[in-house]
Write a structure and sequence with these properties.
Layout (H helix, E strand, L loop, with lengths): L1 E2 L9 H6 L2 H8 L4 E4 L1 H10 L6 E3 L12 H11 L6 H13 L9 H13 L3 H8 L11 H19 L6 H17 L3 H15 L2 H4 L6 H4 L1 H4 L1 H5 L1 H7 L21 E5 L8 H8 L3 E4 L15 H11 L8 H7 L4 E5 L3 H9 L6 E5 L8 H4 L7 E4 L2 H11 L7 E4 L20 E5 L8 H14 L4 E5 L9 H14 L8 E5 L5 H6 L2 E4 L8 H8 L3 E5 L9 H5 L5 E2 L2 H10 L5 H16 L2 H13 L3
Parallel strand pairs: 1-2, 2-3, 4-5, 4-6, 6-7, 7-8, 8-9, 10-11, 10-13, 11-12, 13-14, 14-15
Helix pairs in contact: 6-7, 6-8, 7-8, 8-9, 8-10, 9-10, 10-17, 15-17, 16-29, 22-27, 25-28
């Protein structure tokens, strides 16, 4: 604090201070300058640099904790990044604002774990605010640190705004190069940090999951070129020898059924029919890895990247011990979804145990597809031909030793009604709707257009509502959906039914089923409704439109490109006998193309062999 009393009698305050070396050193190391008195305020312009905050004494409110802000930041990070709370981060940001928005170079590295903790917790705005304090242009900064800071600024910007920042591809490439630099320095810990950050940038869901296009579909070779050409990317894709099979603790009795381990993955409901099919010939053990956050989900995550990289570098440490124990004594393993749990499972399955892995849709656009050691996978199952085209293009010759199969989802005939109830000719159905990628706004636009001509049309939305902890774009989409739901043309005509396993009453009540998604691999809910006689109206799924996905799966006249085309198809079939003819055709197409009996038998043969 500088007061007017500190000035020399024979010279102005500024002159006296400029001649006092100790005072100058104190000013150079100060976080802020508090002015007490008019003489001090008059001298301030000559005393400080433009970046040093100047605070008149009457504005001191809120500054009582500023003196220890960097010390507390250090303590918070040292205690554990996982324990950093949003409340603390808000306090930190307020204090930094008081300090002029400047974080000194010595404290800059501490901001990364804070931004990471907020990003992992889904507090994307806070993560963005913290990352925005990172200074990638600091003089003399190491290229690795510069890339790390730029990467976190770009990642948090993308998560918070749902908009790819300028030069995203350039930043991702810079982070990949930095990972190679640290790998060359034998700094594996830093390499894992940077590799995980690069994967988070390249495979961010805002780029691939919910938009109308994906560079992984449109130009995978160009988009992934820097990653594929890097040493770290090559290592994380490299095959490694399997561990020798361990003798089971309990030998199976002669004639006992084989023991199959099933890893249902992050979305376990899809594996239920496969488990039922395998149970007809084997003892099935379900391993629910999704209970662990490090093994659940499709987003980039540090721990699995760490284990995979060390394995590729020849580290002799065990894979995940819990997973390894589950594999003991297995005759075969079936893994659903190419997620974090799939990576851990593939690393743990011992030599001689056949492994079958199924890929759906979003996991085909995830980082784990590229980290899995495909030399260890005996059978790769894709749920549709378009997904086969996508995955084989993404993986190329890495699948040389893996047999690739297209097997449609297993239908459950017991869930499907054979008759329709009164009113079905004016009811639309959408199965699974509470996600941006399902695009229920498109369905509301179809309903609104139909009701302009005939207000008796209604829409049933079957499935879970929008998640409350979603990324920003999903939350904004949900708000737009609620607003659209209240508009005059559809108000009161939409029945939101919620999630249920008993879909039969809703299938029986519906004459038409909509698939309005931006991306689908198969559209199981729609196919089940078609098998129950609902007339399908399938949007030409935009993300997979370059693969001609919808039209390769279904008859071309089922597929529409616009809301207007959807309305035209529905109106042309909304009366008898046209509806009944289209309903019979829908049942026949499903029976011919997606017979559940064939799918069940195929899974039994792939996983268990022909015995």
């Amino acid at each position: 604090m500088v007061t007017s009393r500190q000035r020399a009698v024979q010279a102005p305050l500024s002159t006296a201070l400029q001649q006092d070396r100790r005072a100058l050193r104190t000013l150079e190391g100060a976080d802020a300058l508090v002015l007490a008195g008019s003489v001090a305020e008059a001298a301030a312009g000559e005393l400080v640099t433009p970046t040093l905050p100047v605070v008149p004494k009457q504005e001191l409110a809120g500054w009582e904790a500023v003196a220890g802000v960097w010390r507390r930041l250090e303590n918070e990070v040292a205690a554990s990044a996982g324990g950093i709370t949003a409340r603390y981060v808000r306090s930190l940001l307020r204090h930094v604002e008081l300090l002029g928005g400047r974080v000194p170079p010595a404290s800059q590295p501490l901001l990364v774990p804070v931004a990471e903790a907020m990003h992992r917790a889904g507090a994307y705005e806070l993560a963005r605010a913290v990352a925005g304090l990172l200074d990638p242009d600091e003089a003399g900064l190491d290229p690795v640190d510069r890339a790390h800071r730029r990467g976190w600024r770009a990642l948090t910007e993308l998560s918070a705004t749902a908009t790819a920042p300028d030069l995203l591809a350039e930043v991702a490439a810079e982070v990949v190069r930095a990972a190679d630099l640290t790998l060359g320095r034998d700094d594996v810990e830093r390499t894992v940090d940077l590799a995980t950050l690069a994967l988070a940038l390249l495979f961010h869901r805002e780029l691939h999951a919910d938009s109308l296009s994906s560079p992984l579909v449109d130009d995978p070779d160009g988009f992934l070129a820097h990653w594929r050409d890097s040493r770290v990317g090559t290592l994380l894709a490299a095959p490694t020898p399997r561990r020798p099979a361990r003798a089971p603790r309990d030998r199976a009795l002669p004639g006992a059924p084989p023991r199959v381990v099933v890893v249902p993955g992050s979305y376990p409901q899809f594996s239920v029919p496969v488990v039922e099919a395998l149970s007809q010939r084997a003892e099935v053990r379900r391993v629910e890895l999704a209970a662990r956050s490090d093994l659940r989900g499709l987003g980039a995550w540090r721990a699995p990247v760490d284990v995979r990289l060390r394995q590729a570098l020849g580290d002799r440490s065990l894979p995940d011990y819990e997973v390894l124990e589950e594999m003991e004594g297995a005759s075969a393993v079936f893994v659903d979804w190419a997620d974090r749990g799939a990576l851990a499972t593939v690393m743990a399955v011992p030599e001689g145990v056949p492994l079958t892995l199924r890929v759906h849709s979003m996991d085909a656009l995830s980082p784990w597809l590229h980290l899995i050691d495909w030399s260890r996978v005996d059978h790769l199952v894709l749920v549709s031909e378009p997904i086969r085209q996508l995955v084989t293009r993404l993986l190329g010759d890495r699948l040389a030793g893996t047999r690739v199969h297209v097997v449609p989802n297993v239908l459950d005939p017991s869930r499907l009604p054979t008759e329709k109830t009164e009113g079905h000719l004016r009811r639309l159905l959408m199965v699974g709707w509470g996600q941006q990628v399902k695009d229920p706004l498109w369905a509301l636009d179809v309903l609104g257009a139909l009701r302009e001509q005939d207000p008796s049309w209604r829409l049933s939305l079957l499935g879970a509502d929008f998640p409350t902890d979603a990324v920003r774009s999903q939350r904004e989409y949900a708000r737009r959906f609620r607003a659209r739901l209240a508009q005059d043309d559809v108000r009161g005509a939409v029945d939101i039914e919620g999630y249920t396993r008993d879909v039969a009453p809703y299938l029986a009540a519906s004459g038409f089923v909509l698939s309005t998604s931006r991306r689908e691999s198969f559209g199981l809910g729609m196919v089940e409704a078609a098998a129950a006689g609902a007339v399908p109206v399938v949007r030409d799924w935009p993300i997979f439109a370059p693969l001609d996905a919808a039209r390769s799966l279904f008859p071309h006249h089922w597929v529409v490109g616009t809301v207007e085309e959807a309305v035209e198809r529905i109106q042309s079939l909304g009366q008898e006998p046209e509806w009944s003819q289209a309903s019979v055709e829908a049942r026949q197409v499903v029976e011919e193309r997606f017979s559940s009996g064939d799918a069940r038998a195929t899974f039994q043969q792939l996983v268990l062999g022909s015995g």
